[in-house]
Structure formats: structure tokens, C-alpha cells
Amino acid sequence: MRVAIVGVGWYGFKPSAPELSFREMMFEAAVRAYRDANIDPRRDVDAFISCQEDFWEGIAISDEFATEPIGGVLRPTMTIAGDGLQCVGQAYAMVKTGAFETIVVEAHAKPSDILSIQEIYELALDPQLRVLEVKNPLFQAGLDAVAYMRRSGARREHLALVAYKNKNRGLLNPRASHAAPVRLEDIMESETVIYPMGRHEIAGFTDVAINMVIASESKAKSYTDKPVWIEGVGWATELGSGVVEWHSWGRMPSMRTAGLMAYKQAGIENPLKQADFAEVEDRFSYMELLALEELGLGGVEGVPKLLESGYYHPKGGLPVNPSGGSLSLGVTLEATGLSRLLEAALQLRGEAGGVQLKGVKRAIVASWRGPPTYTSMVVVVSSS
Amino acid sequence: MAWWKKGRTVDIRHVEGKMETEKYVYTPGIAGLELAKALIEGKILGVKCGDKVYVPAKTYCPDFTRGELVEVKGPWTVETYTIIYEDMYGGKLEKPQIIALLKPEDAEGGLIHYVNIDPKTIRIGLRVKPVFKPKDERKGLLTDIAYFTIEH
Prior knowledge:
The complex is a heterodimer.
Chain A: E1 3-14, H1 22-37, H2 41-44, E2 47-51, H3 54-57, E3 77-80, H4 84-97, E4 102-109, H5 117-123, H6 127-130, H7 139-152, H8 156-169, H9 184-189, E5 192-194, E6 197-198, E7 207-216, H10 217-223, E8 228-237, H11 253-266, H12 271-274, E9 277-279, H13 285-294, H14 303-308, H15 325-329, H16 336-348, E10 362-368, E11 375-382
Parallel strand pairs in A: 2-3, 2-4, 9-10
Antiparallel strand pairs in A: 1-7, 1-8, 4-7, 5-6, 8-11, 10-11
Chain B: H1 3-6, H2 29-40, E1 44-49, E2 52-55, E3 68-72, E4 76-86, E5 92-104, E6 108-109, E7 111-114, E8 127-132, E9 145-150
């Protein structure tokens, strides 16, 4: 039995959405997704899953707020403290059991409400490590970037090329609030924030709510004539996620494991040949390159060479982040993976507007929960 | 002035809140307590798991076995590093901060810590050593090591 995304809805994609509370944003996204899927959530949905994390909401036990704005009152509703793609994985598995036919997945972010976001990030580190006064809690991205460059031979220019590609591409995407017409030299010459990256290479934050309706094959065909099939899902947490010092610097084994898990379900043996495009993690410039490598999308030439040759550009062999990526869309906390899956789904439905690619049928979507965690998620989706 | 004093709803922008996160104690546990005592003595502990030693010391091993706490002596090298110029709010630091993963030659993992050298000279593979604070200033914390510096 196959599983499909049959409806999508979103609200926001702005650095700040002061007009609505996060719960109202959830409601707006839900209303749109249910209209898109032509369903009544009070009648047609078997379970609701929300991916969220208390500290981002400023509320303890935030799952108590998950039910009402998405139509889940007196229905099975649960939350996962993780990236939206982890909710998708859960929904996929639940439908596969045969016990559930239609499931709603939801994630949201309102970073504009978080006035102490640096302190929240710091709180995610081991208390024994936190006694060090590290001045930017995203420092692990710098440690990984330096180790990745050393190992792969990627140079400063390769990281800048990622930002150049994604920041400019996002100008064609109305959801990409952080897009900018930057020149390669602007990126190279911008002041360093976390070595080796400057400000154009570290994604900003965005307010959003995203809702997706996921259904079994038989239900999918009754809801929509444009199902987006979920061919495989994978997720993993690697060594060094809790004891960060134990991490394999410059590598991401969790991304590799998640990718292989999803590829196996999707019957993919050569992802570079069998995928038409990819939406992969790029909240830091180096991360797009590392994600591509761990996902087996570097071919024999390796990721930096393929990037130089334009292979990952919108008109290349494998367009990567045709949406503009997180560098253009912004980091949407636990909704980051769902935001990238939304872009992939719209592409496969032919509804991606200014960033629409021609003739694409299958996509690889990969997300990372961001520092200091090392949890990765991969979803393979297709239109046929 | 607060919106309710002005009486204009247009002035309602936010409901202010404060998360009560300031007071919390973390139990160091078995490994944490031993590590703290060792730091006061100017020593660094790892956990022996089979034929490998992982730093910093934890009670449990990557393979879910229970490890044995052992002292690691180095020599230490820079496994990877970064230099921080700005905080997350865009505030520029007065002085760039070097943060590195320092790996003891005889162990896996290592310590994340400050490296107190000229940012121009930091590189992967650089041989470094921990510099402890004077004994009467040590508190059993990672900051009992003041910083790492170049070993000549």
C-alpha cells in the first residue's frame, strides 16, 4: 500500500508575523491544507501529529495547545519534539500499519517571539559544557565546516557558491523572505561571523505554520488527482548528539543512515540518477555540500567539483534547493524539514510558480534539526 | 507606556512573558563527580570502552556498555576549530574567540575549549596543551582549565 501527501497549507514565511499568534497561524495553515485536500478534519482524519518543542513556544507542555487549532479535539493527537519530517515519518509508518487512513502532520515556528533565541540555543548544550562562555551557540557549525573543508578539499569559494546559488534563486520564490541579489564577491568579502562563514552563509529565521494531510493510497485517490507519493522515509540520531565532543567532525553519519533507509524503501540504488531534484539542508552554506555527500549525491567527481560545474544549479543535472533553500526561506525551527517538503510537493504538483522546474517526477528531501543536535531526516517523494 | 494606560488597542503588540529557567540544578552523576574531582587535581578523565577511550568521561559508552573512568594525558592536538566574530544577535565581539575541539592522541572525542593564541596561527593538527587555573581557583568545572595554548 502506498502513502501520499494529499493536501498542503501554510501561513507566514515572513521574518515576523505579528498579526497572528502561533496558534492562529496553525489554524490558518490547517484550514488551507484541509481545503486543498477537500477534507473535513472533524470527520475524515484518524490522527493528528504536531512536531514542536516547548522552549521555542515559551510554554511548558506545549502539546496541550496542539489539538484545538488543527481540529483534533477528542481525536488521537500527539506531538513529537523534533523536525516536521520526523512527524511525516511517523504518519507514513502509521498509515502503513493499516490502522490509520488519513493523518494530519503539522509544524510551526514563531522565532520572532523568541527574544532570547541565543540563550535558548545555549540551553540545548550539555550543562558541563555550558560553563564555557562560547559567544555564539552555533559554533559547532564552524567546527564542522572547517573539518569538512579539510577532508573534502572544498574551498572557501565553494561555500560562497552555495549561498550565491540559493540566495539569488530565492528571488523567484514568494515564500523566500531572506532571498537577496548578492554577488559572489559580496559573499566572499562579507565580514566573518563564524569562521569560515559570513552573514550570507548563515540562514536567518522565519515565522511559519505548515500543515500536510497524508493518506493511504485508496483514500488519496478519492481526495485528489495530484497526490505526491511518499516513497520512503528515514531518520537517525548519531553518536555525538548528546555528548557533542564524540561527534565525527565534518561528517554527518545520521544523514547517510537516514538517506539509505529512505532509498531502500523507495527502491533507489543510484540517487544521483534516480532523483530529478533535491531540497537539502542548507541552514549553513557548508551544510548543503556535506548533506549532498552523505546522501550519495556527489558522484565520482565529488560534491565540490559538481557544484563548480553547475550540476546543482536549477538547469543542471540535479537541481539542488530550487526553492532557494533555508538560506532564502529562513530556518523555521521544527518546521524546517516540512518547509522543504512543501517546496518539493509544490514542484511535483507543478505549482511552484517562479521556481518551477520542468518535467520533475521525483525528489529527495533532507533536513537536520540543527546544532547542537545531530539528528537527520530524509523523505523521497514522487508524482507518479 | 503600557497599552492599557493609553487605552489604545493599536498599542497592543505583545503580551510579555518570562520563562522561569534561571534556577535549576543539574546532578553531575557518577562520571560528572569524578571528572569534577579530577579537574581540581589538574587531571582530565575519559571513559575506557573496550580498547578505546572516549573524552569527556561519561558513565556509559557509545556501544551502551558501562565504561571505566581513566585519566588521559595527551599530547593534545587541534582536531577542528572555528573563530567567532559575532554573537547570534549580530553583536560584534571585542576580540574574536577561538573555539576548538582538542583531541588527546590516545583517545577518541576530546574537549571543546578556548584556544588562546593569535587567530592567524590556528590550524588543524596544531599541538596544544591545557593551562589549568591556580589550584585555589578551581571549582570542579570545565573552566578549571583556563584555556589551551600552543605547546612548544
